[in-house]
Amino acid sequence: MYDTDKRKLLSALSHAAIFLSTTLVSIGIPIFILFATEDPVVKENAKEAINFHLNVWFYGAIIGVLIWVSFGLLIPLAGLWFLVHWGLTIWALFNVLTNTEKPFRYPFILRLI
Q1: What is the pLDDT of residues 53-68, one digit of tens each?
Q2: With contact defined as beta carbons under 8 Å apart, do 91 and 7 qualify?
């Protein structure tokens, strides 16, 4: 029914946008894809990517405050969060490229959309 190559490309682009930058560009891409496509799987992947971007920023801010409050003692926490956030994104990319019939769901995130 829907083009699987287009589904793979748009879903992967939604999740991989976080690699482009940590600015509004990274969340703008999945927002654009959400409104530009009619494919329900791509829409769900775009929503999940938007939620993940918001969670990355939220938890990053919390970790930043914790580092500041602890006078830098919790800097390794930032490195751990960096690895977790990149690892989850790579997992999402692998999943959407291999399983095109089902949208990817990140574990342990707050879903606002």
Answers
A1: 999 999 999 999 999 9
A2: no
